[in-house]
Amino acid sequence: MAACVAVISAISTSAAAGCKVRVIDIDPGTVALPRTWKKERGTLALVLARDDALVFGDMEGHHLHSERFSRTFREHLVRCRKALGDAGPPMIRLHDCLSR
Questions:
Q1: Could you tell me what percentage of the chain is helix, strand and coil, using 3-state DSSP and rounding each to the nearest 5?
Q2: pLDDT per residue of the chain (100 residues) written in tens, 0 to 9
Q3: Distance CA 7, CA 10 (A)
Q4: What pLDDT was estimated at residue 8?
Q5: What is the structure's pLDDT at 11?
Q6: 3-state secondary structure at position 17
Q7: ∠ at Cα 97 (20, 9), nearest 5°?
Q8: Are 23 and 11 in contact (CB under 8 A)?
Q9: What are the Cα distances from residue 79, in Å, to 65, 69, 85, 89, 96?
Q10: Rounded to whole angstroms, how far apart are CA atoms 57 and 47?
Q11: Are 51 and 61 in contact (CB under 8 A)?
């Protein structure tokens, strides 16, 4: 199931026509992050600079494999917790970040 994301002053996601639209209010600094990330990625390859290019995709502009992406997230989180000890972030699932 694909989701559409529009970044203006909030993130709105919709799974398909007829589904509930979910709006998440976020601050302007957080809104700027994906725009900056996409702009920087666009300097690597022309396909990544297109208006319809994915913000979070692979180097060829394709969708990331969800299981691999989740596994990489967990691995980075574990490494971060080892490096920072008690100051590290709590162990959370990637899905928890998207759902809150």
A1: 45, 15, 40
A2: 344 444 444 444 445 555 666 677 778 888 888 888 888 888 988 888 888 888 888 888 888 888 888 899 899 999 999 999 989 888 888 777 765 4
A3: 6
A4: 42
A5: 44
A6: coil
A7: 60
A8: yes
A9: 21, 15, 10, 11, 19
A10: 11
A11: no
Q: What pLDDT is stored for residue 84 in this prediction?
A: 93
Task: Kindly report the backbone phi and psi dihedral angles of residue 60, in degrees, each rounded to the nearest multiple of 5, phi listed first.
Answer: -95, 0
pLDDT of residue 98: 64
- Alpha-helical segments (H) within the chain: 28-42, 46-49, 66-84, 94-99
Structure tokens at 63: 């969708």
Q: Name the strands in the sheet holding 22-25, side by side, starting at the edge strand that comes first in the sequence.
A: 4-7, 10-14, 22-25
Residues 21/12, Cβ–Cβ less than 8 Å: yes
